[in-house]
Structure formats: C-alpha cells, structure tokens
Amino acid sequence: MNISRTSYPRVVIIGGGFAGISLAKKLSKQEVQVVLLDKNNYHTFQPLLYQVSTGGLEPDSIAYPIRKILKDFPNFHFRLADVTKIEPASRTVITDIGELKYDYLVVASGSKTNYFGNESIEKHSMAMKTIPQSLNLRSLILENFEEALLTSDLNERNALMNFVIVGGGPTGVELAGALAEIKKGILPKDYPDLDTRLAQIHIVQSGNCLLKGMSDKASTKAEDFLEKLGVNIWKNVRVTNYDGKTVTTDSDLTFETATLVWAAGVKGATINGLDAENLVTRGNRLLVNEFNQLIGFENIFAVGDVACMVTDSFPNGLPMMAQPAIQQGEQLGDNLLALTEKKPMKPFEYHNKGVMATIGRNKAVVDLPRFKLQGVFAWYVWMFVHLFFLIGFRNRMVVFVNWVYNYIRFDREARLIIRPYKKTIR
Amino acid sequence: MNISRTSYPRVVIIGGGFAGISLAKKLSKQEVQVVLLDKNNYHTFQPLLYQVSTGGLEPDSIAYPIRKILKDFPNFHFRLADVTKIEPASRTVITDIGELKYDYLVVASGSKTNYFGNESIEKHSMAMKTIPQSLNLRSLILENFEEALLTSDLNERNALMNFVIVGGGPTGVELAGALAEIKKGILPKDYPDLDTRLAQIHIVQSGNCLLKGMSDKASTKAEDFLEKLGVNIWKNVRVTNYDGKTVTTDSDLTFETATLVWAAGVKGATINGLDAENLVTRGNRLLVNEFNQLIGFENIFAVGDVACMVTDSFPNGLPMMAQPAIQQGEQLGDNLLALTEKKPMKPFEYHNKGVMATIGRNKAVVDLPRFKLQGVFAWYVWMFVHLFFLIGFRNRMVVFVNWVYNYIRFDREARLIIRPYKKTIR
Questions:
Q1: Cβ contacts (< 8 Å) between B63 and chain A: which residues?
Q2: A417 touches chain B (CB under 8 A)
Q3: Of the candidates B2, B132, B392, which has its C-beta nearest A418's C-beta?
Q4: Per-residue pLDDT tens for A135-193?
Q5: Which of A220, B73, B80, B260 fits a disulfide with B125 by CB distance 3.0 to 4.6 angstroms?
Q6: What is the ipTM of this complex?
Q7: Are residues A182 and A159 in the same domain?
Q8: Which residue range forms the structural domain that includes residue A376?
Q9: pTM
Q10: Nearest-CA neighbor of A269 among A173, A165, A135, A129?
Q11: How are strands ordered across the β-sheet holding A92-95?
C-alpha cells in the first residue's frame, strides 16, 4: 500500500465500527499518522439494522461514509481493504490490496454471526449483522408473501408466512416486534387475497428469559409486550437444525418455515496471525488487559466486540455492544497519545450508561443505572438515544422523518424488493 | 395464476410505471377487475435515478411499493411477474408464475436501453434505467476512486478517474453535471491522497447539440452550464465501441476509461407475441391508434414509452417521457370504461406541459409551452415539479430533506458502496 511514512508514529486501525471511529476521532488532531482499514466505505449503525429488514428505514440512512468522518482530519488515510493476516514479528498487516507496516495496531474488527459450527443453519438461515444481509432479509420477507399468493398448497403457504427468529436478545426481540406490527398493520391491506392472520412469528430462546443481559423487569415486560403483539415465545428451547424447510429443536417442537433468522449469537471477528490459542478466549474474542492491550504485545490493541476485557462485574468480558466499544475507542485514543509521549496509560473503566430494547410502537424497555423504564416513555428515550448516536445530521433528519411518518401512518414504506434475494443471490 | 373471475370484465395491465399506475388509478373505483403485473414490487421514479447514481438520494426515496398505491382500490390484484409472452388468439398472458386470461390487455412495459446491437458496449458499459443499475453505477464510481489510490500507473489511474457519458439527452446531461459537482465539491476532501483535478468528465453526443428535444436556447444554455462546470462536451461524435478500457469513436478521438455510461438511446420493451413486424415501429415501439389501441386489435392497448402514437407534431411518435405516459394512462382509463359501457372512446390529445433538465446547483433549463427559463428560477421549477410528481408523502419529505441538506452543505452523503459492483456482480 503506497502510503508514505511521516515523522509521526503510524497507528493502523482495522475496522470502522463504533470502536474504530471513536478512536479515530480522538486521534484526529494529534501527532500520529492514522490508517483506517475497513471492508466497507461506510460505518454501519447496527442497532437499527432490524428496521431496514422490516422496511421502516432505508439502508442509506443508517450508513455513513467513513471518508466523510475523516475528511477534516490531517494525517488520516482510509483504505477499502479486507485484512487477511497480521504478522506481529514484522509489524505488518496483510490485506487484499497489499501490505502495510504499523507502529501501533488496533484491532477493531467487531463480531460476526456465530452458528456454533452448524453448516446447515449457516447455509439456510438469514443473518442481520450487515446492511446487505438486512436488505436480503427485507427482500426475502416480501418475496415470501408474493410467493404465498401463488401456491394452493396450504402447508407451503403457511411455511412462507411463518417466521422463526432464533435468539431472544435485543436483535431477536426487536425484529419479532417489528414483524408482528407488519402482520397487523400492513399485510392485510397489501395482501387482501391472502389470509394473513395465518402468518405466525416465533421467537425461540434457549435460556429461560428474553433480553438476558437486562433486568428481570425489562425481560418480563418485553415478553408481555411481544405476547400482546401476538408473537409466539418459546423459552428453554434450543434449535438444533434447519434444512431450509423444517426447524428442529431439542424438544418435540418443530416449525415449518421458509425464513429462519439466526440471531442466537455472535463471535469475535478475529484475524489470522492473532488467533493463537492463548490470545483467544470464549466467544472467539481477543484477551486484552485493562489498557486494551493484547496479552503479550506492547503495540497491539483490541477494542470493541472483538476485545475481551474481563472485569469484576463482567467475568466473561464486557458485553458486545456499542457503549463499551465507543468508550474503549475513546480511552485508547488517550492511551496511545500517552504512549507516544512515554507517559503512563490509564486503565479502562466501563461506565454502563444503560441498556435498552424496543418492542414496537410505544413499547420499549430501558434499564438505566439508576432506574428502569418500560412502555411509552421508555420508547421515547430509546428513540432519542438512537437518533443521538446516529452519525450525521442528514441521517438523523431522514430517520426522524421516517419515524414520524411511520408513527402517524402506521406504515413502513420501504417494503421494496430492490435486489431479489431468492432469484439472484441464493 | 389463481385470481378468481368476477362479473366485471378483467383488465390486465403489464407494467407499473407512469402509464400503468396512472391508468390503474383511473380504474380504481370502477366496475372492472384489474390485474397489474410488474417485475418489481415498486414503482420507480426514473427522472431521479441519476441522483441515486451520484449519491445525492437514497434509492428507497424514489421507489414506491405498488401494493401500497393499490391498497384502497377494490377489485385490484397485483402480481410480481415477468411477462414472457402474449397470445392474443386465446386472450392469454404467459408469465414466469403462470398464465392469465384477459378481456382487455394494456401493455405499459416501458422502455429499455438500446445498444443498437453492439454487444461489447452492452457488456462493458453501465446503464441507468433501473434502481439496481443506478446503484451499480454508484458503487462503480466509488470503487474506481478507491482503486485509483492503489495504482502507481498514471494511465491506469487516469482511466479510473475518467467518466465517459454517451448521449446528450436529459439523462446524460444531468449525470454529467452531477459528476462535475462531485469532482469539485467532494473528491478533493474525500481523496486528499489523489490529484482529483485529473478526473475528467466527457459527454459524447452524435448529433450537433445537447438536449435535442428542447429549445435551442435550452440546449445552448445547458452546454454553457456544463462547460462552466468543467465537463468536456463532444458533439457530432459517434461512439463505435468500448472494450472495458478504450472507447473508440467514428473520428480519431478515443478515451481511456473504466466507466462508460450508455445513455444514448432507449427502445420499447415489447413482449413476445406482439412483436410482429406490422406492429412494431421505429425504436421497437408498438404502433397504436389515437385510442392507444394496438393496430389490428380491439382489446389490446399500449401506453407510455412502449406505445408509438404518431401525431402531426410528432411524426415519429410521441416522446418517450413521463408526461405522455401519464396522460395516456389517464385517457385510456376513461376509454376502457367507455368501452365496457359500449360508449364511444375519445381520441388522445397530448398536452405538452413542458420539458426540463437540471444541470446542477442553481442550474436548470425549462421549456414551458408559453415561455422558457434557464438558471436559478428554472432550477426551483425543476425541483418543485419533481417533488410534485414523486409518489408518496414520505418520499417527498425524504427527498426534500436530502435536497435542502445537499444544497446547504454542498454534499451528497449516500456515497456508499452497499453492494460492491466489481467484486460481486461483474
């Protein structure tokens, strides 16, 4: 990669997610050369992907060009690259567009869907971790209803109208709620030829509650909200397989469905060269110390989902969410500058600012450090926080316009099959 | 196709473009059963596709779900279908999802890119007639600049930064203007490592003026605007070939470019079974009489781009634009109702409400029947008219927000490579 060296030390950041971007912002006007690498030329606001899948938001409103974030920063370089390997001995990052030397390396490569080794599920299910994946799901949902119109086989029609979501975390809960609202508000009008009351939404959770990371109150209320919306909740059920038609579980329970959404787990998106056994912990994450420093390396760091920082409160590592990622990115920015000035680094301390999930119209659950909210006011808090953290004024405006419109009109107008999923991609 | 017959006569409309939708609206509360068939589940507002390609608008804001347009209409059915053949003898439409009988058939299948038989150009060039095509072009433009950063071969880098647009109609002119503004306002900030002044935008026109269908004044002024924006205008030059690298012309002139946009012509998207020689005229359009009735058929009609209606003012047929399509759709709606009531049909009369094109910020040309405008005021007229004709309040709001933002900030934030073109599609 032809990026000229300057007299400043070079920091290479892999990944433009929450962690990578907040780190980059911290380093923006400092005496370091920064090279940010990402597979995409945009930052994705992952918490709203489920609204893309369900036609509530356009994909472009939750994506933001990385180059635009960096444009006023001197000493910044962005390259659209897929990192294939890291060679710590020679301080080199190897990518699909060439090699690059670093003085400091920050791995902020995030997480990817964890299928726990089940290839059949991986092949036949839908994930919702990226914008293209979310658009594929949007297309598939709509294609299924178009196809349901064409069959006179009742079982096939029901399978096309059934949705099974595996995983009771925020992604699963939010998607289930949105699908239930579509079933109620949009399907009967859009498909008068179909008996859309037969469409079923199932959420399957291996543990004994939804929203495991949140309070009991939030969990119970979320269940309550989903049940009122007509979602079928299956707890203590583990999905064992899916062949594109039938979902089998560890009990007698099976589902016939054309759409399985796999939101049952994520794992760190580690990179070759840093995946030695002693570095990688539970969930395929890189073990870091309190400075986000990779165990055994002076100049390699990991932040965000891919980093596993164990604390007293989080013996399995900090949660894989936006907040720890943003805070680690910011703290590491300060620490890298300290390092270059030969000053001591400060240990990272996680400030839990709250966890939240929305179930639907006027329905959200919010656990703040001091108090917990459920219902309408929680929903406003959820919206405000998400608008606030979204990058870019235009994105905020467009999302706001969509939300106001969707709220007033009970609608989701981005129900568009722009790239058919079944015909062209599968 | 399992659509039950009612006592009403059945009108099958092929295509949900301007003509098909305006016809459908006219028939909405009448005593006819209407089946609308389209390859997509959305209506595309084609005049703004170039803004999708250039990152100024998100695709979802110029698409509108067809089912939503039809949702309050009784006796309406939509099917996502690709029509493969028409059998007039048995009054049957054959599609990829089955057959359908009609009493009245309306072909509103629009137009497609005309490569005039040049397969090499068809294979290597980019078109801009559909949303996926426009998104492919958006991705390619951005990928080219990312790639230009990686090469040290100056010729290759220049080829990646050069854009050749073939065709001086509204599409070509609007795209050239938008690219010129991107070159000026966005590239230098986004790609500080590149000398983006070297990026060249060429528009090549076989005739001796741009915007042939418009007034001399509009044509001259458009040229003037483009030149001021730094676009290279080549008139009386016919592109003869493109192999993915070099554009050859009928003169000594050649261009090295990684991106050729073919906007040099369209032809009617006729359908098998109706493509007999006596039916099809210049530009592959179906010859219709003053009632939009296909020559030789009582119950088959064509409207919009695919229909060729010859008038005194338009000896080669009405122009392939939104206005004639919308007006023909509306008129045919009245005429079909007249037919079912055994009343006489009224001949179609085209009311030219004006033709317009925008070149860029504060720069547009508008030919109205009574007067002609160029410049800032024309630009406001252009925007107002396009917002007015866009379907859906949400779309109008989102487009408006984007335009205001882009205007104030000199920006286009949808510069996102959501689906890479080179890597996955080509």
A1: 416, 418
A2: yes
A3: B132
A4: 999 999 999 999 999 999 999 999 999 999 999 999 999 999 999 999 999 999 999 99
A5: B260
A6: 0.95
A7: yes
A8: 119-264+361-424
A9: 0.96
A10: A129
A11: A83-87, A92-95, A98-101
